[in-house]
Amino acid sequence: MTDTGTVAITVSVNGVAHTREVEPRLLLSDFLRHKLGLTGTHVGCEHGVCGACTVLLDGYSARSCLTLAVQVDGCTIETVESQGTQDALGPIQAAFRDHHALQCGYCTPGFIMTVADLLEHHPLENDEDIREALSGNICRCTGYQNIVAAVRELAKARGPLT
Amino acid sequence: MKDAGLSVEMRPKMVGSRVKRTEDPRLLSGTGQYVDDLHPAEMVHVAIVRSDQPHALIRDIRADAALDVPGLIGVYDFTDLEGEVSPAIPSSRMRNYYATPIWPLARGKVRFVGEAVVAVVATSRYAAEDAAGLIEIDYDPLPFASDPADAACHDAPLLHEEAGTNVIISREFQHGDIDEILHTAPVVVKGRFRMTRKSASAMECRSYLAQWDKRSRAITFHTSSNIPGIVRDVLSSSLGLPGHRLRVIAPEVGGSFGGKGSLYAEEILVCALARKLERPVKYVSDRLEELSSCSQAFDEWMDAQLAVDEQGHFLGLKADVIGDIGAYSIYPWTGALEPVQVISFMPGPYRVEHYHGRVRGVLTPKPATGPYRGVGRPSSTFAMERLVDMAARKLGMDPAEIRRRNLIRDEEFPYRTAPGIIWDKSAFQECLAAACDGADYTAMRAWQEEARAQGRWVGIGFASYAELTGIGSRIAVAPGMPINTGTETSTIRIDSTGAITADFGIASHGQGLETTLAQVVADELGCAFEDVRVRQGDSEVAPQSTGTYASRSAVLAGGAATKSSRVLKAKVLRAAAMLLDVSEEDLEANGGVIRSRSSNAVLTFREVADAVYNRMGAIPHDKREDLVSTETYDPYLGTACSSTHLCMVEVDLQTFGVTIHRYFVAEDCGRIINPMIVDGQVHGAVAQGVGAALLEEIHYGTDGQLQTGSFVDYLLPLASNMPDIGIAHVEAELPNNLGGFRGMGEGGTIGAPAAIANAISDALSPLGVEIETLPATPDRLFRLVTAKTQEISSQEGNKK
Ligand code: FES
Ligand code: FES
């Protein structure tokens, strides 16, 4: 810790290494949104319930509102901005668009990052499985049906977990 | 097709298609911009110290300790804004009404836990919260009545002394002699129904950013609101700034469902501070603040009775409703919006000759209630549909049959209900039939029989309702409200590059209006969908607008888009006719290309624009018209959107948890602009209805404290709570408005609580349990079942 009470951290975010002095209490969500300007990650509850703030931390989904920036020193973070751009949507984003799996879009980045983890690590064998796997993220707009449809299609395209 | 006025060759192509949304790429890639994503230079942050008292005088505010916090800019209470702002007054022409003034910060007295008292401004939100934590407020607690029935008593402590009462709203509808009917009817069923308090809980919390421009002495205010035009107008008087020095923008808005559809004290506050400090000022509410100070929903007690003859025909209905409207009358809708709609819509889509509805809206020390998806009708439909099922059970009649006998029939439209609402022709009966067909009602009953034989608690529930959508200028959306909610304006322009911009006052917050309105413009103007850019949610692009709420945008903005496109198209064709030297009648426009029917001559919109604007003399100077049109649409009356929901649920014998096995919605929403978006609205609205039915309840203790201050206590539906929802669209006859659209965004929330309550009551009917309070939580169901089982066993004991 420095005299000013800040801590130097180095984090790889979406493939780019960032070194910053941060207060120990700075939330990862605030670090990403307000220090790095990656505002795709959203905050819906600040206490770990809604999943809007979900990012990948070393490849696994994590709640950035419950993680301190200093905890991810030396780690790899991926946010929704890593998944594709407006002109070249990634596969999860494209499936969400095709299935109308978003309305206001506020929960969407969190869902996308959760699904990125699920596709890597979760069998997603049937709808019940998919619904259970998605139940850590809240969407107030869609009633989930179209999100489930998007994930069903992505899981099918992926095939069984190896 | 009525009123569409289109020749066969120009039949719409975009309207009716599952067009993918224009909004999506930016929202999916994290490039959308919500208010909190904006970071102007020099911006400062507000943290708010809120009341921890339900009703108290503010004796002293001590901020000394806060002043040393690094980064602190200032600490402000109401005295610091005295003379700089005037309050917003939610006025109405209603009799016996008191309009509670809305100030940015509490003035000497607090009236609910969560009311804003002190604003702390600092260079970061962290610093602002550090300082806020060091501020001490001394209160002199005052007595209060938290229960609306207590608060309505004449000797109850008053929240607003000036009103002289806590009952600031009272209204009655009387048609026929209900007491005589109740006295003589062969069957009367009754209940004391309770729809508890809810929170709209959009995933984005309320967020505000006001920027003061020193050069033009103007404010640009970004707000997560679905009524930016109303906010502009009220802030204009509150801050004393003309509209051209006050621009209100609702950028991406992360849902509202009504929660962001009223003016908030914090909106006045942030603008006043920005002007005072001459710096950009941002306030973003956190979830606790959202649950304790955003407008809340419903909260009614409804004593209701239905009289029925032996054949199941409804004879009369009586309802006495108390609405707990919280501590303030909300701006602009007033506290009457929700409770008055309950009695206005209680007879539902049925023939009810004799009706007496009475409502009182009572002030209590809680956040104001305001609009929430469905407004009034989730409660009224819950009470009425429960009565309908209770009557059917008493008569031994199938719940589908009793509805069939009482739903308004085709030949009866337009039908004027006892409270004076006029239903235009809509598929009331057909939706019931379509729900039974689509969900396979017969098979559901068979399945239920099997499950029951195994001792399982499985039940089936219906809910039929109609809502008034797309309301024009004949009546204000809220009773007696002096704001024009009956019109919307659209300006469409083709500029010198050939780009088409369509401006609207409405404010999309998840509905995909940028897509649907572009679909309407593309068809009506004959241009390419991709060439249309829709601008909305910005007070600068329309002279007046009230925004997006009350299922009005498809009807009103769609109508304005249609009118404006038609005027502009005529201008484009007039110019093209001159350029091609043919008659206008010889031309047709489609997909951005103008063709002559008689020759092979072709012009693009872009070429026409180029000729009009850039090529001097291409069009005779006295015939040249700018390619711009502004038109306002007023549907005058509203149009009915009708629906029947049908579901099957199971109550777990051990946990008393409810699982929804099947859910089906049949609805008539007129001509559909985008079926993908319409289905999405149904899914989302049903989910909110499921929340209201099974999970969501804002709870205040008798000490006036909020007991549900997080999403751990206030439960929202999750993917695992929701079934797949089947949908059938019934299109009986298009309504008599421009475009043939009906509003449909709210219906799911209206039908689902009633349908689920009926299904649970059906599941538990062997025990005689009738659901009267929502949400039907496991705890409530356990108590109901235990009480009934004890009753039954003590009766059996007595018999022995
Ligand atoms: S914001 Fe992190 S879980 Fe809700
Ligand atoms: S799309 Fe609005 S919360 Fe999910």
From TrEMBL, chain A:
GO terms for molecular function: 2 iron, 2 sulfur cluster binding; metal ion binding; oxidoreductase activity. Keywords: 2Fe-2S, Iron, Iron-sulfur, Metal-binding, Oxidoreductase. InterPro entries: 2Fe-2S-bd, 2Fe-2S-bd_dom_sf, 2Fe-2S_ferredoxin-like_sf, 2Fe-2S_ferredoxin-type, 2Fe2S_fd_BS, Beta-grasp_dom_sf, Diverse_Oxidoreductases. PROSITE patterns: 2FE2S_FER_1, 2FE2S_FER_2. Residues 7-83 form the 2Fe-2S ferredoxin-type domain. This is (2Fe-2S)-binding protein.
From TrEMBL, chain B:
Keywords: Molybdenum, Oxidoreductase. InterPro entries: Ald_Oxase/Xan_DH_a/b (IPR000674), Ald_Oxase/Xan_DH_a/b_sf (IPR036856), Ald_Oxase/xanthine_DH-like (IPR016208), AldOxase/xan_DH_MoCoBD1 (IPR008274), AldOxase/xan_DH_MoCoBD2 (IPR046867), AldOxase/xan_DH_Mopterin-bd_sf (IPR037165). One of its GO terms (molecular function) is oxidoreductase activity. SUPFAM superfamilies: CO dehydrogenase molybdoprotein N-domain-like (SSF54665), Molybdenum cofactor-binding domain (SSF56003). Residues 29-143 form the Aldehyde oxidase/xanthine dehydrogenase a/b hammerhead domain. It holds the Pfam family MoCoBD_2. PANTHER family: ALDEHYDE OXIDASE 1-RELATED, XANTHINE DEHYDROGENASE. This is Dehydrogenase.
